[in-house]
Amino acid sequence: MGYNILIVDDVLFNRTILREALKGMEEVTFTDAENGMQALDIIAGQEISLIILDLMMPLKDGFEVLHDMKQEKDFKDIPVIVYSAIDDIDSISKALTLGAYDYFTKPLKPKEMNVILPMKVKNALISYDQQKTIRTLNEKMKLELLMANLFQQSMLKEKQDMSSATMYGKYIPSQEIGGDFYESFQIGEDTWFIMADVSGYGVSAAMLSSMLKVEFHHCAQFIQSPEKVLKWMNQTFYKITQSNYSLTAFVGKIHENTLFYSNAGQPYPMVFRVKDKTVQILRESNFPLGMEDNEAYNLHNIELESDDIIMTYTDGLLEDRSFKDSLGVYDDLANNFITYQQIIKENPSDFFDIIFKLFGNVQNEEVNHDMAIMLICMK
Predict the structure, then answer these.
(1) Structural domain range at position 16
(2) Does residue 64 lie within any of the structural domains?
(3) Which pTM was predicted?
(4) End of a domain among 85, 113, 145?
(5) Which residues are CB-neighbours of 74 under 8 A, at least 6 positions away?
(6) What pLDDT, in 10s, does the model give residues 308-318?
(7) Which terminus of the chain, N or C, has less C-beta within 10 A?
């Protein structure tokens, strides 16, 4: 692998001396620049592995070159070795603060020229290789996370039509992937749904959420009651994580216009009552999953009517506002749930965008916390 070293000095003699000191290095070529402006042009047009930079030059000095380089993501990781007069330590200190990799003072003694300078250059080139490898791995990781995000999003349907209800949902992860998930499906005449949130962020949380989504599907096939589903999932989750992670989950089952539900630490779901235009907040809850292997969960039920709407969401939606007003935030959300009913009927996606902006402080799909929201609209 070849290296291209850029030597920047307004004095030809200095550039020649530096070349001579480094001529024994293998796989190295040299490029010269007489001033800072010329150096920046070369950096922009060539692949430079290392820069040896004089700090005191006309037109644009070494400090300005360092400053400009560190503003550009393509150049900021190129190692720079700076040098200046032996009595100019303050300038060296300033250059290191600006991001220089190393320094030496001139004039160099013969031993320093033949041993110390080549060693500094060798170390800087090793750093360059390491930074380049890290960038390559980061780009690969970003691509893999992007693919994982596309897969995760494909698993979270925005709409699911069932015989008794229609589900609408949206999820915005704070990183490329995260641990929130929701799901709805029909078994016989019953509509099952879950809103859940694995503690933490990133790949590990996403892997656990995918596993638990499969587990929820499995449980609902043979367990008829939401609180027993949570108990089963809790035991499974605890065996895997040994309380190193926790999971909040709300599980609901709609059977003949009755909602049977159980809550393991999720923010309180809400039900919009179309008949009297009010919202019922379901304030019952138990401990999250994964804390204790023998945790018990309570079953509750309410009657539903045609066009009633159930809303569930993860705590990322209320994270910032709950810190300021842990109780009032639910009433505020309930009032907005009522206010935007017409928008829900016309386009649930628009409702999600409004709520995410009002409560989650979402700007251009960028958030500080994972957040998900789901509506179950009765037919």
Answers:
(1) 3-145
(2) yes
(3) 0.63
(4) 145
(5) none
(6) 999 999 988 88
(7) N
What span, in angstroms and rounded, lies between the C-alpha atoms of 47 and 174?
34
Confidence of residue 367 (pLDDT cuts 50, 70, 90): low
With respect to residue 222, please indicate whether it lies within any of the assigned structural domains: yes
Q: Looking at 125, 145, 165, which one is the last position of a domain?
A: 145
The verdict on 169 and 311 lying in the same domain is: yes
Q: Examine the domain organization and report whether 107 and 86 are in the same domain.
A: yes
CATH of the domain at 160: 3.60.40.10
Distance CA 118, CA 89 (A): 21
Q: Strand order of the sheet with strand 102-106?
A: 28-33, 3-8, 50-54, 80-85, 102-106
Q: How far apart are CA 297 and CA 282, in angstroms?
A: 15
Identify whether residues 279 and 354 lie together within a single domain: yes
Query: At a CB cut-off of 8 Å and minimum separation 6, what does 126 contact?
Result: none
Q: How many structural domains is the chain composed of?
A: 2
d(CA 61, CA 66): 9
Terminal Cα distance for the chain, rounded: 67
pLDDT in tens, 27-77: 889 999 999 999 999 999 899 999 999 988 888 888 999 999 988 888 888
Tokens of 326: 């842990």
Clarify whether residues 318 and 361 are in a common domain. Answer: yes
Dist CA 96 CA 94 (whole Å): 5
Instruction: Calculate mean pLDDT across residues 317-346.
Output: 82
More confident residue, 87 or 119: 119
